[in-house]
Amino acid sequence: MRVLLGFCAASLAFCLVCMAEEESSWIRVSSPTEDPLHNGFFLDDDHGWIISYGTGLVLRTVDGGDTWTIASRLDSIFYECIFFSDRNTGWVCGENGSFLQTQDGGWTWQRIELALESYAFYGIHVPEQGRGFLVGMDVSNRKAVMYESTDRGETWIERKQEFPGACFEPIQFLDANRGFMAGGKYVLRTTDGGESWIANDLEEGAVIRGLHFASLSHGWAVGHGGDVFHTADSGRTWRTSERFTSNRLRSVRFVDEKRGFIVGDQNKEPGSLWWTDDGGEKWNRSAEEFPDLHRLFQSPQKLWAVGKAGTILKYTQ
Fold first, then answer.
1. What count of other Cβ atoms lies within 10 Å of the Cβ of residue 4?
2. Rounded to 5, what percent of the chain is helix, strand, coil?
């Protein structure tokens, strides 16, 4: 019995050390605002931007996130996504048909008149070559909408095709041809650069808010009510993971096939950050309490989380 207890104590100590290492990897970064921060984008190791939620604040860093400054303040609507194609050219999109472009790194913005105010845009992807996408929904009928650009965002044309799903939020392309996006209870995938999309129906009632592929095979989708879905065959089939919270989950990112993180709201119970080190077999709630966290996004060397009260978190691999 003494030997067994010794083994258990040693195992517990080892687990606590592992957890401490995992938890201590998240560092709070000084923020210039207490506005709720909603989404972000890194172009390279040094240049990154963050958009606030409901206040139109744009933050900018040129030193890899060590310091953040207020670059501009837009009107106070709900901006959902921010994307840059180079150090000067970027876009933000949001509700009321809002779609704005900057050509000076985020200091000034010009509105692009595309859509009716009933449109809400949730996702942008503008590659160096191939199609660019601006996606969302028409809130008047809750149907998905998509705009395409073939000239790196200079011009946009609405795609007159019905897509399943109430809206599209995350967009991720693994290469020029293979990409994924999610809306409502659907995850859509393409193998031809967005010329055609194949929809997978996950589960009745699901509302997907976050989507990420750690590799071509393994992907994760998270949403309302603690829903977590996983695919191991490039999105062809999905399985429901064991529920570990009833909170609204907003975003998911894996730094490799084993280590991953999920963030969300504390709308039902404590917890806004969860992590796994076994490929999602088990999810652990962070021992440190954070406010509601809205998005995870990556720079080449780091993982970032933003949320309420101007929260900026950095995870270094």
1. 8
2. 10, 40, 50
